[in-house]
Write a structure and sequence with these properties.
Elements (H helix, E strand, L loop, with lengths): L2 E6 L5 E4 L2 E4 L3 E8 L1 H9 L5 H8 L8 E9 L3 H6 L8 E6 L5 E8 L5 E4 L2 E2 L9 H5 L9 H6 L6 E6 L25 E9 L8 H13 L4 E4 L3 H4 L17 E6 L6 H4 L7 H10 L4 E5 L7 H10 L4 E10 L1 H11 L2 H7 L11 E11 L14 H12 L6 H4 L1 H14 L5 H4 L6 H6 L9 E6 L5 H7 E2 L2 E2 L18 E2 L2 E2 L5 E4 L14 H11 L1
Parallel strand pairs: 13-14, 13-15, 15-16, 16-17, 17-22
Antiparallel strand pairs: 1-4, 2-3, 3-6, 4-5, 5-11, 6-10, 7-8, 7-11, 9-10, 12-14, 18-19, 20-21
């Protein structure tokens, strides 16, 4: 049975069991602890949901327990509120944990509004003997060690979590019950799920790369050119490879290029709702429409461009491109950079374009493309960026398939294991990266570039999750679509594209980075610009 602990505004330590304890200073309410066994039984009858699938993709298990917080009421701090009115309240819980040396663990917090955030364990100063894997494995229920474990070593906590409890937002009119999200066990209210996996091993700093590479190899396995005679075939998952590219030689072809951790079927899924637009595109290009699937985390944009060239047989190819997010940078690299520049950026100086292969990129639709970069790609802010993306995905129904919650949990687990590590595909989008410096070197012929951008302002639980004292924690007041700077889409090589070539969705439209292609206006602009 779950164990309920009453909180009474004190900072006393509450032992939850299984190596976990809780301090909830200044809070009243109930903390309900479910052991791994109890939580597993709770989930047994529930159908697989987004979180279950994402955890499986990341190789994570719900074997570290589950904490629900009900009726939580903070102590009032009127003096602080009066002295610093713009400061948001910081009501936090402190959770101690014992993590074995051969395991990786982190916490997933979900608030009453259903918004997720990811939390790193903070190492504690060593006290007593280190907790070995074998000792941790012998730990029993309620945090009690077996007789042999008691004799061999103490079980001090090795880490703790500081988790800020976000304030619930007012429920919509007519809503009588809290939101019930199955993403963390089907339990409403505030919940904290602890997840873990075995360490991957390898050098320090490599865990992020190795984890991401394994995820891409399995969950983004199909790479290269694919397509079909209809938009439905183009968006098929798994995709149908284009076995013969001879019909695409010396004729204009429409090319779809997806963004980070996505694929064609995920990035452009919205096209399935606009069959007329799809039909027009296929008619305009006489059915020469293809997509290019590629790995975007562990491969750089330059490496993607090299793979693009290497996938083409001898011949001359001409493309118009519909791109999303990072895909626009790949389209621009193919258009603007010579093969020798690609080889240099990819650290493959010996590579040369295949003999007889010529690639010409004409018009490019830049939809949500970070042409000047995005702060989410700063390697130093990677933990914040990954948690932010998890918050975004838990806020909207669209976009989960595109980015992949499993990819985010995979990267976060790698950060926990080996610290911040290099992901070449993300670092290319860091402002000032070598790629962006090359791409943004003048001159520019603006006639071939078209943009679709958005200014999105979050509200409710998402606003709390990504802001710090009322200011976006990563964009710091800069207009953005949650992932990419708004005006960075239409700023190419330091020049702003002509207004007639750019559509901007304002705040009132509710358009953000992951739902551009679910808007009729986006497809209208694409048809207009590519006509």
């Amino acid at each position: 049975m779950p164990t309920t602990f009453a909180l009474n505004r004190t900072s006393r330590r509450v032992d939850l069991g299984y190596g976990k304890w809780l301090r909830a200073p200044g809070l009243t309410g109930n903390a309900i602890w479910r052991s791994p066994t109890e939580h597993k039984a709770l989930l047994a009858g529930a159908p697989p949901d987004q979180m279950t699938r994402a955890l499986a993709e990341a190789g994570l298990e719900r074997e570290s327990g589950f904490l629900s917080l009900e009726g939580i009421t903070p102590s009032p701090t009127p003096r602080l509120a009066k002295a610093v009115p713009e400061r948001s309240p910081h009501h936090k819980v402190l959770v101690g944990t014992t993590i074995a040396s051969d395991e990786v663990e982190f916490a997933i917090y979900r608030d009453e509004d259903g918004i997720l955030s990811l939390h790193l364990p903070i190492p504690l100063p060593a006290v007593g003997k280190a907790v070995t894997a074998s000792v941790a494995a012998r730990r029993g229920p309620h945090g009690k060690a077996s007789v042999s474990a008691k004799r061999s070593a103490p079980l001090p906590p090795t880490h703790h979590y500081w988790i800020k409890l976000r304030t619930p937002q007012a429920a919509p009119a007519g809503t009588a019950t809290p939101k019930q999200m199955a993403m963390l066990g089907g339990i409403g209210g505030r919940v904290i799920q602890f997840v873990k996996r075995k360490v991957l091993g390898g050098l320090a700093g490599d865990a992020v790369y190795l984890a991401a590479k394994a995820w891409e190899a399995h969950y983004r396995k199909p790479q290269g050119f694919h397509g079909g005679a209809t938009a439905t075939a183009l968006l098929a998952n798994p995709p149908a490879p284009v076995a013969d590219l001879s019909s695409f030689k010396n004729k204009k072809t429409l090319l779809f290029i997806h963004g980070t951790s996505s694929n064609t079927s995920g990035a452009f899924a919205g096209l399935s709702q606009f069959s007329q637009a799809g039909n027009h595109l296929y008619e305009n290009y006489e059915n020469r429409v293809i997509g290019f699937n590629h790995h975007t985390l562990t491969k750089s944009v330059a490496q993607n461009a090299i793979d693009f060239y290497d996938g083409l047989p001898e011949g001359a190819y001409e493309f118009d491109v519909i791109s999303h997010s990072r895909g626009g940078l790949l389209a621009r690299a193919l258009k603007e950079l010579a093969p020798a520049q690609l080889a240099e950026l990819a650290d493959q100086p010996a590579w040369k374009a295949p003999s007889g292969v010529k690639v010409q990129i004409d018009k490019i639709m830049l939809v949500g493309t970070p042409d000047i970069g995005t702060p989410l790609a700063d390697p130093n802010d990677l933990p914040k960026a990954v948690s932010r993306l998890a918050s975004i995905l838990s806020s909207f129904s669209q976009g989960v398939a595109e980015i992949g919650l499993g990819a985010l949990l995979t990267i976060f687990g790698g950060i926990v294991e080996g610290g911040i590590g290099a992901l070449p595909g993300l670092e290319d989008m860091d402002p000032g990266s070598p790629l962006l410096v090359e791409l943004n070197t003048p001159p520019l012929n603006p006639a071939f570039y078209f943009g679709v951008e958005a200014d999105y302002h979050p509200s409710g639980g998402l606003k709390q999750a990504i802001e710090n004292n009322g200011v976006d924690a990563l964009f710091l007041g800069e207009l953005n679509d949650l992932i990419v700077p708004t005006l960075g889409v239409s700023t190419v090589k330091g020049q702003v594209l002509p207004p007639a070539q750019v559509d901007e969705y304002g705040q009132a439209t509710g358009v953000y980075h992951l739902n551009y292609f679910y808007q009729a206006g986006t497809w209208d602009k694409i048809l207009q610009c590519l006509a």
